[in-house]
Fold this protein.
Amino acid sequence: MPVEHFFPDPEGRVPGPGGYFGDYGGTFIPEALRAAVEEVAAEYEKAKDDPAFAAELDELLVHYTGRPSPLTEVPRFAARAGGARVFLKREDLNHTGSHKINNVLGQALLTRRMGKTRVIAETGAGQHGVATATACALFGLDCTIYMGEIDTERQALNVARMRMLGAEVVPVSSGSRTLKDAINEAFRDWVANVGHTHYLFGTVAGPHPFPTLVRDFHRVIGVEARRQIQERAGRLPDAVVACVGGGSNAIGLFHAFIPDADVRLVGCEAAGHGVESGEHAATLTAGEPGILHGSRSYVLQDEEGQITEPYSISAGLDYPGIGPEHAYLKDAGRGEYRPVTDEQAMQALRLLSRAEGIIPAIESAHALAGALDLGRELGEDGLILVNLSGRGDKDMDTAARYFGLYDGEGDAK
Amino acid sequence: MSGKAQALSEALAATRREGRAALIGYYPAGFPALESGIRAVTAMVEGGCDIVEIGLPHSDPVLDGPVIQTADDIALRGGIRIAGVLRTVREVHAATGVPVLCMTYWNPVDRYGPERFAAELAEAGGAGCILPDLPLEESEPWRKAAERHGLATVFVVAPSSRDARIAGITDVGSGFVYAASLMGVTGTRESVSRDAADLVRRIRATTELPVCVGLGVSNAVQASEVAAFADGVIVGSAFVRRVLDHADDEGAALRELRSLAQDLVQGVRCRT
């Protein structure tokens, strides 16, 4: 059976030696984790070239995840985007409800190859945690998920899903009590239990090799979408758009389009209450180079290198770092990164729900808001591809409070 | 080797001549406040610490357990800045004369500028730096700055480190080698890990540098066990715990710090 859904970077453009994407990346980790990180890198290098690994992952991606995910044109939504044509890559229709499952299944297979019996992971919105808990149930692995206390409250549905799947969910009460602190706690667990535990990192940040292997497991998004949009629209899009927190769904979509110089790569960062308010998570817009969670990239920090607390209505984007390949694409001028506020994202969420009957995750709604602006800039001839990275079920409590749906006030347009 | 790094080596040579291990105390600057933190470290030296490590608190201390996380958090909320850390180094060194190292994560130093940080740490009387998340491969800019200013660069080695890697690390490290006694974060433990003695043996096969053991040591019995095979015993969380437990009574906290240091000194002198 031909392998159709696992696409490690065929050209090996980046990273270079030491896991560097230009000036960004590297491996800034405690010595105690060095051997484990090297083991993951070595196992991935072997797996990448092993047809049996690709075949098994492919089987899972087709018959468990449901790939390829559809491409949906959204004309009523697009009418508000200056009349440009807009297509959505429907990662929300994957099993577990987001793109996260692509990476999780790949790393779960690696975990098994390494002979490890326990998996830990961080989660913000809970989508990576749910996907990880799902894979651990499927593979019979012990599973512990670290989640900031604030996020366990605003994403309570996903906490229940993880526990239903048999995972232990540990609320993290240190620091800003969000994704950043969940990652800190997962690293502390890993240092102590590295002999039998794999840290199933959920985004394209962290120490080498995670930015590369997580990207490779998500490349399928862009590879599929590039083929699909050419079939449907007869040409490549003017822009591909995705939300960026750590940046995994965005790099998954962007990567296959990097050689297409005429296709703009647009990442939408969480601007919270506005970048000027100081309450945001717009790392590439307002951050500066520094080290967080094992690699050098853009970081929200003060002038003495203390990481500052981010803010976003979206738990999945509420992170003061960003994957190093995005930092590289920004500095190279290949990627464009725009801030999108809570309010813009929530309006886009409601618009897509009402116009197309698709309720997006708040994270993905940031990309939709970016597409509305971009469509107005491109005009009627524009063609935009948006990654709908997750579905919004988990966000209904936040949305209901935001729009007053519990009071019936949200009936208004 | 030059500057205060030389004084660090001499201090470790002196304890070795005495047939005992050195007692090395860790304490974060600015905890619970700048001035009281300086008094706390001074009390640790009065109690018997031969060398001290001053922590530069970080917002994201991934290698620290709950005790030091809490102290870092209190210090940062209290407004500790790098200037306050350097002042702590300066005043402790001036008051006690013992070698003073700085221990922190790489981002604050990277952001401040390695050259500027090394120059100011040396000027304050610092003997060197421990940067546990700065690996060998990324350490050259820091090591060059440290050498220019006569500072030691102490690397951490873990039980999971392979022999060839240990040799690479000890080849470029200076001052001493920090052997992590166990796989885990800082904090007190019930017993000293068996891994520690084996790791020290593997380190000694690669270097003449003194080897000091940290992580998990909190009392005289453990200190004496470690002193049997190491040149130094590093204690952190147990000191910080004493101050957290006496948050409302500085006098009691200082007595506890002195008394713990005195106990630990008995341990490092009586090698079991």
Summary: The interface with chain A takes residues 58-63, 65, 69, 73, 76, 81-82, 105-112, 132-135, 137-138, 155-162, 165, 169, 180, 183-185 of chain B (CB under 8 Å).
